[in-house]
Amino acid sequence: MTVLPFTAARRLTRSRTRRTGLGVSGWAAVVVLVLVAAAAVLAPLIAPYDPNTGDLLHPYATPSADHWLGTDGTGRDVFSRLVYGARTSLLGPAAVVLAALLLGVPLALVSAWRGGRTRIVLGSVLDVMFAIPGLLLAILAVAMFGPGLGAAVIALAIAYLPYVARLATTAAEGERRLPYVQALSVQGHGALRVNVRHVLRNLSPVLVGQASVAFAYALIDLASLSFLGLAVQAPQADWGVLASDKDALLKGHPLGVASASVLIVVTVLSLFVLGSRVSGEDRR
Amino acid sequence: MNDVVLEVEHLVKRYGDGPVVVDDVSFRVRRGRTTALVGESGAGKSTIGGIVTGLQTATSGRVAVCGEDRTRVARSARERRRRGAQLQLVPQDPATTLDRSQRIGDALAEAVALGGTPRTDRLPRVEELATQVGLGPTHLELTPRSLSGGQRQRVAIARALATSPEVIVLDEAVSALDVSVQAQVLNVLNALQRDLGTAYLFITHDLAVVRQVAHDVVVLRHGRVVEHGAVEQVLGDPQDDYTRLLLDSTPRPGWRPVALV
Questions:
Q1: How much is the pLDDT for A122?
Q2: Contacts 24+ apart (CB under 8 A), B246-249
Q3: Percentage of residues in chain B having pLDDT higher than 90
Q4: A-chain residue closest to B81, CA distance
Q5: What letter would DSSP give residue B79?
Q6: Would you say residue B155 lies in a domain?
Q7: Structural domain includes residue B118
Q8: Where does the ABC transporter domain lie (chain B) (predicted)?
């Protein structure tokens, strides 16, 4: 397709986007998430210690210049474990959301485009999937394939699929009825092009909003599974594993548990705020 | 009858076991002429438009564009494109007639590309289309949100013209516009028809618009044709009571509402 040159008019469009953009809370959420993501990516540069190597002579050390958040029961640096923990804590939910989107959005587009029996059949399949609780499915998957992030991610992706697909179907059906879609069809464009180039692009704010909310829930669910010892396994650093350090709590050293819990809460809140801002939910 | 570009014969549409919404409708649209489909809401105008454009299927009857039968759904991409090159649609609502996230220039370029125009010739063709409907190069850089309702309908007309179709279906295309903008868009349509010879199937409930643009008129009531002929004849000397009622219900100085029964 011909690419037309940028002009002042495009700058005008962009400035309007900015005016109706994320807002202060949205940008604050972006800053938090960028910091968390940067910590995950740059963990070897940021973390002062190996997250899995402990100093048995200094268990439960109090915060100091050497150990900013102290050490855990085996003398491992809590700050380093939190920084490295961001990796699995973000990677797991990202994999869950990506898989749910990759399966759910095409299903939604097909259902909305074809309508009729296709919609009824796909809708019924989703209804059945809705009836299965995600955590129960994950526990079942872990029982079958053994504990670990992989089984938990696959199970949660299946559990999240109907939520993503149902929302995307509703949005796609609304878009499908718009006259521009009819005009494009009459013009001679095929269903694939209309859906990918037009419908999907216009659904992207809704999908991004939904993805960020699903990411937040997946983070909580995976942290819960790690807490139960079913997903990420100790000694691997993970926020859920860190938040489930019962020994530290019983021995009066709650800083590591509290820090991991605060990180989970702040990240989830940021995702909720960003999701609602991107999808425009809180501006309606 | 080589100048017939759209032929509708004994068209019937029924949704499931419900009532018949289009009942044995037949009419023809000739090259370079405008045929108006008029009638009150629910008369079946837009259903006929939907069937003619291929967005809906008929229960029975035949639709032919440029002599080619369109009763069945297009089976291949080539057939879809060929149909698009013969007949185009301008929808009603200016707010949703264009993809809101696509720049005008890109929307026109996409339509031009569909017509098989070589890549190097697309930009000049896009600018030519914009000029034909009274838009400038600046408009090509904007998204629909930055345009007025009249400008959006002009873009929709330009997009429809991109494949040089023989006939354009205008489904209440000016009904949502205010009177002055409506007149501008109708003038654009008249000029394009004069220059290009494009035929229009004008679906509307506005008889004032029909007088201004149409050569022939088909009056529909409850899905049936009650009167059909040249505009001067049908609107000047209506033979059917319903047509007279429609004319009497058109607001004018000293007008009092007339109930359609």
A1: 94
A2: B246/B38, B246/B39, B246/B40, B246/B207, B246/B219, B247/B207
A3: 60
A4: A188
A5: H
A6: no
A7: no
A8: 6-247
What are the structural domains, with CATH classification, of chain A? 67-283 (1.10.3720.10)
- The answer as to whether B234 is a domain residue is yes
How many structural domains are present in chain B? 1
Q: Which domain holds residue B242?
A: 4-94+167-248
Q: Which residues of chain A are within 8 Å of residue B110 when distances are taken between CB atoms? A: 1, 189, 197
pLDDT digits (tens, 9 = 90+) for A57-92: 889 999 999 999 999 999 999 999 999 999 988 999
The CATH number assigned to the domain holding B191 equals: 3.40.50.300
Asked if A185 lies within 8 A of B142 by C-beta distance, the reply is no
Kindly write down the DSSP assignment for every residue of chain A, as one continuous string. -PPPPP-HHHHHHHHHHHHTS-HHHHHHHHHHHHHHHHHHHTHHHH-SS-TT---TTSTTPPP-SSSTT-B-TT--BHHHHHHHHHHHHHHHHHHHHHHHHHHHHHHHHHHHHH-HHHHHHHHHHHHHHHTS-HHHHHHHHHHHH-SSHHHHHHHHHHHHHHHHHHHHHHHHHHHHTSHHHHHHHHHT--HHHIIIIIIHHHHHHHHHHHHHHHHHHHHHHHHHHHHTTSSSPTTS--HHHHHT-HHHHHTT--HHHHHHHHHHHHHHHHHHHHHHHHHTGGG-
Tokens standing for B235?
């609107």
Q: Answer whether B207 touches A (CB < 8 Å).
A: no
Q: Is residue B142 part of a domain?
A: no
d(CA A66, CA A49): 10
The pair of three-digit structure tokens given for residue B5, joined into one six-digit string: 């570009």
The string of pLDDT tens digits covering residues A232-284 is 877 788 898 888 888 888 888 899 999 999 999 999 899 889 888 877 655 44
Query: Angle at CA B188, nearest 5°, toward B187 and B189?
Result: 90
Q: Rounded to the nearest 10 degrees, how much is the dihedral formed by the CA atoms of B62, B63, B68, B72?
A: -70
Report pLDDT for A17: 42
Q: What is the 3-state secondary structure (H, E, C) of B29-61?
A: EECCCEEEEECCCCCCHHHHHHHHCCCCCCCEE
Interface confidence, given as ipTM, is 0.86
Structure tokens given for B131: 């000029």
**Contact map slice: B 101-120 vs A, CB within 8 A:** 101-103, 105-106, 109-114, 119
Residue B105 tokens read as 């220039």
SS3 of B87, please? strand
